[in-house]
Amino acid sequence: MEKTRLLQAIGFIRRFLYKSLIIVAIGSIGSFIYAKDIAYLLVKVVNIKTYYLSLPEVLFSSLEIAFFGGIFFTMPIIALFACHDLRDIIGFKLFHRFVFIASGVILFYTGCLFCYFIVLPSGIKFLLSYESEPIRAMISIEKFVIFCTTMIFAFGATFEVPIVLFLLGKMGIVKSTTLGRTRRYAILIITIASAIITPTPDIYNMMLLVVPMYILYEIGIILIKIVEKRKGQNHTS
């Protein structure tokens, strides 16, 4: 039984990646056209000046924006692909598929926007606070783009914790009691991950990720309890 599920999961991943790469490539082409506008939005929110330090740097930064933009703008379609393939593994009904897609997309964009409007301005302001009269920041546009897009996507991914836990619970891989008993270790892992992901070492910026991640972790446990309760009702009926 476990071997069959593993083979199903591998097949799901293969199909999912193949279709996702195609749609991301299409989205990246569209994002490349508006790469300068997207770069302007990134620079504007943190209110700094950026520079290109080599001739091809603007082109490379535009390609990077196009790639990340392709993922960002096609996320609803990627979620649709994931849900379509997952139905064979965990038996999603039509309504559950809609809830899964909507929840995953909303959580991803919430994490991205939270990082864009709150974490990035706060974090970059902290990093630039070390400037002094003889020392001025001259920020490369390419490194700035990589920094911002990595941060935004990291927050978008971490906000998917409840969805991931729900799926693992649905597949019977994790149980709510196990997650409840290992809560202290989860807090430790969340703290370490937040320290790695957040751009600054100060407590304030780190807590901007720790608190939402822990809340989402607890929401994931609640969702698994609901799944387990329904499974119990189905077995008794």
What can be said about this structure in brief?
This protein is mainly α and 237 residues long. It contains ten helices and two strands; from the N terminus they run H-H-E-H-H-H-E-H-H-H-H-H. It folds into two domains: 1-154, no CATH class; 160-237, no CATH class.
Strand order of the largest sheet: 1-2
> What order do the helices and strands follow?
HHEHHHEHHHHH
Radius of gyration: 21 Å
SS field, number of helical segments: 10
What does this structure look like?
The chain starts with a helix and ends with a helix. It is globular, with a radius of gyration of 21 Å. It has 237 residues and is mainly α. Helix 7 packs parallel to helix 10. It has helices spanning 2-33, 35-46, 57-73, 75-90, 94-128, 141-158, 161-170, 176-181, 183-197, 203-236, and strands spanning 50-51, 139-140. The chain has 2 domains: 1-154, no CATH class; 160-237, no CATH class. It contains 10 helices and 2 strands; from the N terminus they run ααβαααβααααα. The longest helix is centred in the middle third of the chain and has 35 residues, at 94-128. The chain has a two-stranded parallel ribbon.
What are the salient characteristics of this protein?
237 residues; mainly alpha; 2 domains; two-stranded parallel sheet; 2 strands; 82% helix
Chain-wise SSE layout:
Elements: H1 2-33, H2 35-46, E1 50-51, H3 57-73, H4 75-90, H5 94-128, E2 139-140, H6 141-158, H7 161-170, H8 176-181, H9 183-197, H10 203-236
Parallel strand pairs: 1-2
